[in-house]
Amino acid sequence: MKTEGQLAGGFSFENCRRNDMLAQKGLKQPSFLKTGTTIVGLIFQDGVILGADTRATEGPIVADKNCEKIHYMAPNIYCCGAGTAADTEAVTDMVSSQLKLHRYHTGRESRVITALTLLKSHLFSYQGYVQAALVLGGVDLTGPHLHTIYPHGSTDTLPFATMGSGSLAAMAVFESKYREGMTKDEGVKLVAEAICSGIFNDLGSGSNVDICVITKGKKEYLRNYMLPNPRTYINEKGYSFTKKTEVLKTKITPLKEMVEVVEVGEAMEE
Amino acid sequence: MDLDAPHSMGTTIIGVTYNGGVVLGADSRTSTGMYVANRASDKITQLTDNVYLCRSGSAADSQIVSDYVRHFLHQHTIQLGQPSTVKVAANLIRLFSYNNKDMLQTGLIVGGWDKYEGGKIYGVPLGGTLLDLPFTIGGSGSSYLYGFFDQAWKAGMSQSEAEQLVVKAVSLAIARDGASGGVVRTVTINSDGVTRKFFPGDELPLWHEELEARDSLLDILSSASPDPMVS
Fold first, then answer.
1. Between chains, do A156 and B1 touch, taking CB under 8 Å as contact?
2. Residue B11 designated active-site
3. Shortest Cα–Cα distance, A173 to chain B (Å)
4. Nearest CA of chain B to the CA of A142: how many Å?
5. What's phi and psi for A224, nearest 5 deg?
6. In this structure, are residues A63 and A37 in contact, taking their beta carbons and an 8 Å threshold?
7. A164 contacts in chain B (CB < 8 Å)
8. Chain A interface, mutation test: which of B7, B31, B42, B72, most A Cβ atoms within 10 Å?
C-alpha cells in the first residue's frame, strides 16, 4: 500500500498558498457546484429502484433546476451521486468507461460489486478529497444489489439507503414504511414519497423527482417522474428581444455528404 | 449535523477463546458524526474459511485493510496448499497496520481456528502492535467492559458460556456507549466450522434503568391497522 516515491500521483496542493494570499488580498474564492441533494435506493421483489431530486446548488443559489443525478454505469447498473457535482460526474463517468472495457475484455455483463470495488478504491486513494457520496444499485446474475459509498471509501450494503443533505428526511419515510418484497408500484410510490420528503423539508434539495427502476434484463429511467414544483407565474408575453437582427441570406448545408468508397488495387506487399 | 464527517464505527468488538474455539462479537452501529449511517452493519468480516476479523475505527480504513489482507491470505493459502493459520492472518493485519500507522485509524481483532493451535484470538489496536491474548475487547464501547471482563472471564469455558458472555458484554456496552447500538452479531469458529448468530435489540437483556419497549415500531407494524399513526 505504501509506495516508495512521494510524488506518485494524487492531489497537488501547490496552489494553496497562492489561494490563501489571494483570499487575504480580498479576492472572493469561487464556490463549487454542490448537489445539496436527496438520493435514495431500495430493493423490491424484482430488483432495485433508485430515486433522486434535481436541484444543483452553488452556495445559496440554485444553479440548475433540473439536473440529472442518476448516472449510467452499465446497462444493468445505475448510480445516484451527492456531494460536489464535478466529482460525482467525473468518478461515475470514469468507472462507467472502466466497466465497459471490462465487459469487452470478459465478454460478460457487469456486476454491481465490480463497480463498487472500482469506486471505493478510487475514493479511498484520494482520502476523502473527492467528495462524492454515491448510492449504487443494479441487478446482475447474482441478483439485485444496493450499496452506499462514502467519500472516504467505506461502503455499506443495505436493503434501503439514503444519502445527501436530505437523507434524514428521506430515511424517516423509509424507516416507517419500508417492507421487504414490495411490488414495483409500491416501491416507486415509496421512493417518490421519500424524495418529496427531501424536496420539501431540505433546503439543499428541490424541483423534480427522477426515478430509475432496474430489474433483471430491463431498466426504466423515469426522468422527471414527478414535477411537484411547477412555475407558478409565467408571463404571457413571453421573451422578446429589443433589437432584431436583419436576415440577409439563408443557406442550408447538410452536414453529411455521401462519399463513395472504391476498392482499388491489391493488398500491400513487402 | 455533519454529514461530511468520515464514516466511523463507534463500536464495541470482542474476541474470546473457549474450550475448542473462539467467539467473536460486535454491535452493528456505523455513525457519520451524530447520525447513524447504518444501524445494521456487519463488523465481523471473513478473511478465510477459518479466520474472521472484527473491525472498529474508521470504516473506510478497516474495510480496505481487510480487503488487502483477504487477497494476500488467499494467495498464501494457494501457495501453502492448506488453510492458513490464525497467526499468519494476524501477522499480515499487524504488518499493514504498523507500516501504515500514520495513515490508518483502525483497531482490529483477529480470531479463528486452525489445526495447530486450535482457537486463537489476536488484538491489533491503533499503532499496529500484535497482542496474543485469551480474550480481547476493542472499540469505543470497550471502555465500559474492562472491569466486567476482569471479573467475568475464566479459562476453559464451554461454547454456550462463551457466547452468552459475549452477548451480555456487547449489550452492556451498547447500554452505556452512544456510539454503539443496533443488534449483536456473533461468529463462533471451531473445528466443525463457522456459525453466525444474530441477536436483535429486543432479545437482549434489560439493564439498570432500561425499560421494556412498548408501542415501538415493531408493535405498530405487526398490529392490524395499516396506518402507522393510528393505535
1. no
2. yes
3. 11
4. 19
5. 55, 50
6. no
7. 3
8. B7
What gap in Å lies between CA B127 and CA B94, rounded to an integer?
A: 9
* b/e per residue A207-231 (b: at least 16 CB within 10 A): bbbbbbbbbeeebeebeebbeebee
Listed as ranges, residues in chain B with pLDDT below 50 are none
Would an 8 Å CB–CB cutoff place B69 in contact with chain A?
A: no
Q: Taking CB atoms and an 8 Å cutoff, what residues of chain B touch A175?
A: 217
DSSP letter, residue B27 = -
Name the CA dihedral angle for A160, A163, A166, A169, rounded to a multiple of 10 degrees: 30
A156–B30 CB contact, under 8 Å? yes
B24/B50 Cα distance (integer angstroms): 12
pLDDT (0 to 100) of residue A10: 64
CB pairs under 8 A between A and B: 57
Residue of chain A with shortest Cα separation from B58: A154
What is the residue whose three cell numbers read 493488398? A267
As a whole number of angstroms, the distance between CA A197 and CA A128 comes to 28
Selected residue with higher pLDDT from B231 and A145: A145
B209-224 pLDDT tens trace = 888 877 777 777 777 5
- Structure ipTM: 0.83
**Which residues are CB-contacts of A260 (< 8 A; sequence separation ≥ 6)?**
none
pLDDT value for A252: 87
Q: pTM score, two decimals?
A: 0.81
What does the pLDDT read at residue A39? 96
**Beta partners for A64?**
A56
DSSP state of B144: G
A156–B37 C-beta distance less than 8 A? yes
Cell of A253: 448545408
DSSP B142: G
Of A131, A153, A168, the CB nearest to B60: A153
Given this model, what pLDDT does residue A35 score?
56
To probe the interface with B, which of A116, A119, A154 has the most B CB atoms within 10 Å? Answer: A154
